[in-house]
Each structure stands twice: as structure tokens, then as C-alpha cells.
Amino acid sequence: MNFTNSKKWLITGLVASSTLGVALVSSAFTGGSSAIMAEYDVSHEVVTLGVSLFVLGFAIGPLLWAPLSEVFGRQKLFITTYGAMSFFNAGVTGSQSIQTILVLRFFAGAFGASPLTNAGGVIADMFAPSQRGLAMALFASAPFLGPVLGPLVGGFLGMTAGWRWVLGLLATFSGVLWIVGSTLIPETYAPVLLRRRAKELSKITGMAYRSNLDIDRAPVQLRAAFVTALSRPWKLLFREPIVFLLSMYMAIIYGTLYMLFGAFPIVYEQHRGWNQGIGGLSFLGVLVGMLFALVYTVPDNKRYIKAILKNNSRAIPEARLPPSILGGIAIPVGLFWFAWTNSPSLPFMASIAGGVPFGFGMVLVFLSVLNYLIDAYTIYAASVLAASAVVRSLFGAAFPLCTTQMFQNLGIHWASCIPAFLSLACVPFPFICYQYGKEIRRRCKYAAEADDFMRKLSEKSKEEVPEINGQIDDSNPGTHVARPESPPSILSRRSIHRVPTVEYEGNPFDIDRVNTRD
Q1: What domains are defined for the chain?
Q2: Tens of pLDDT along 378-416?
Q3: Is 483 helix (H, G, I), strand (E, B) or coil?
């Protein structure tokens, strides 16, 4: 993608902000939960459904919006879905019954899942694999920063102005992001861009032009894209041990994050007597840990680039995993720390500080594991990421519903230990993948096929000699530009010829549904 670096980072910031906005909407709802309980005379579990159903809607994203983006492009889908989410948020603000609130929250989450799925695709469209580490870190941290910021924003506003003001602010915020994003985020998906250019050339020359991508492989059909999007993630999840173990690991961490939205009010508001606004400040420890993790990604990205250079510029999937090993240790440390320092008899800072290693480890594990899955499965990366996203969304929806009963029956110490023990049991997973991942991938059908595909592509690219006769600003690295269907004739200088690639720079978010078959 021949954008300037400043434009690429502007777009990255916008898509990351749109993702953060969705995540913020998911959790800021808790700031008005007490007022909603009082107004509609419902239990805490019923109000918690407002969070759980929103997160459950996230499970739709990889299965619905990803294939649609391949057919219609990123830009149109963002404008449509983010606008719908903003309108559903506005509808929640004016709701007159708890049933309406819950239904609209689910649809807001379902439409809001689009940027969670496709924003990563936008980044992958613009940056080569060796350059997208920091951009992906910025994007991938947004789904965690948003939920942590939600209680901080919603707590004080809900306490002083009421729950409708909380939801009104969320609707306004998402609406502003929708307008800004619709105006400034361009189309970045290469097949759509090249198809548009082919149409322009057809009008100019009077000849029928088609994109090389559409000639070398048929354009993606909506039905075929949906069949693959709905079936292949489950095959990968249950047939590939690496995908299953790491998806479950991330799901447990994600579920734990959303469980804290119910746990922290119990620990700090019920047991310590804090008000709702001050109670939201208990998430500052987790936020600080996340910021430390983002800082850590800068030197770690340099380490990864050195590892690639040592391997003849070919990515090593296992080289992505060292941060997840460190983060995997930090998570149970932070959770056990919180579990046994959250007594009202101890200083509040002792337990809040336990959120720092948890937030630090959570971001490191997610960034590391997601990049590992992309590198290990390349041509199947979109389906792997979809499987992981669906599982963690289900866990994120379920964990908050169990929190209140668990803390009432087990107490604040042992209830807090349950996610700590679960994360402790998962600590070996990154170690195993780092030490034995290469051998495991050889024995797994899809991982072996992906590795074989990349090896052959690398060998083929070394044999090809690039013949560059022209280029277009809309081209994406690793794609071909338009050529005419009919025999060549005397054309204008705008005629464009095929540009062979010498390095694979494809988009891992889309390649499996475009280039492969079951």
C-alpha cells in the first residue's frame, strides 16, 4: 500500500480508536448498573446481561463481517456497521424497559464486532509483516484498554448524572468515531481497489479490463466466503492442538478481564464501602500494567526483527512467543496477589497493585499468541483468528454471569483464586509451543500445509525476476494490477502490466478464504 508513513499511522490510529470505542461501550455500561437495577427492580445478574450480551455479539464478527469485507471492502462495511452500532447505542439511551436495553445491547455488540475483526485487516493491508508489529500492538491493545477505561468513565458519570447520561455519552462517542472514520479511513483491501481501477481503465480505454487477482483466481463469491467462514474455524479449533490450546488460554484471560467488572465492585464497593465513581479507580492498576506492556513491545519488536534477519528474512513463528512466556507467568502472579490482599483490613493499594502484573501479562500474551498463530497458519490465519475470537467472546460473555454467585459462596479470597488457578494451569502452553512448536506443526494438517505453502512460495520468489513496467498508488504489496481481457492494442500510458512479486506480503486476515479450499 503506497501510503506515506504518516498516513498509514493516521489510519492505524483511527482504526485502533474505533476498536477502543467498541470495547469502551462494552464495559462503561457497568457505571449505570446500580441505577438500572433500582429503576427496573431487577437483579444484578439481569443487569450483568447488558455486558454479557454485548460481548456475546462479538462472536458474530469473525463469522459475518469478515467475509462481507472481502466482497464489499473494508470502508463500506465500517460505515454501515459502526453507524448501526451508534444508533443502537442511542436506542439504549431512550429505552423504557430492561428487555429493550438487553436486546439493543446485543445488536450493538454484534454490529460493533466489525472493527474488532476488520481493523486488523486494515493494518495488515498497509504494512508488510516485518513492519506491522508496532501497529498491531496498538490495535490489539485497544480491546483491553477500552474495557478498563469503561468503569473509570461510567462510574463517576453514572453516580452523578444517571445511567442514561452514561449511555448517551457512549452513543455520542461512537457517533463521533463513526463520522471521523467514515471521512478519513480509505478503502485498503487490495482486491477491491484493483477492481475499481480496472473499471476506471475500462471507461478510459473502452476495453474490458479485469484485475490480475480476478484473473488468477475467481473473485470471492459471497456464498463461498460464508461457507468457509462458518465451517473452517471449527475444523481448525478442534483438529489443531495449537489452535485449541492457545484459543482456550486467551479465552480464559479474556473471561477473567470481564469477570473483574463484577469482582471489583464486590471487593471495593460492598466490602470497603466505596462509591461507584471511586470504585472505578480500582482498574488503574490493570491500566498501568497494560501501558507497561505497550512500552515493552518496542524493544521486543527489535528482537523479533533480528531473529528474522538471522533466518534469511523468513519469519519464525516460535520467535513470537518469548513475550507470552513472560506474560503467562505475570498473569497468575497478579491474580493471586489480588486474591490474598483484597481484604478490607489491608491497604487498598496492595490489591490494586496486583492488577499491574495481570494487565502487563494479558497484553503480552495476546499480542504474542495472535502473531504466533498468524505466522504459523499464514494461509489459514483468518479462520484461526476467527476461531480464537469466537471462543474468547463466549468466555467473556459467560464469566461475568458467574461472578456474583461465586463471590457470595466462596468469599472474596477463594473466588478470586479460581481464575488464578486456571491461568496457572495454562502457563506451560507458551513454553510447549516455543520448545516443541515446530515439531507439533509438522504433525498438524493445516499447520503443515501452511508451512509447506510458504516454503514453496519463498523458493519460487527467489527464481522470479521482477519486471516492473508501471505501478498504481492503490496497489498493495503482493498483489497484481489490472490487465485487459482482450488482446493488447495501442493503449494510453495508463495501461498497466503485471508486476510479479518477489516476497510474500499478503494479508493474513483474508488469504485463507481467498486462496485456499477445504
Answers
A1: 5-185+218-448 (1.20.1250.20), 465-501 (no CATH)
A2: 878 778 888 898 999 999 999 999 999 999 999 999 999
A3: strand
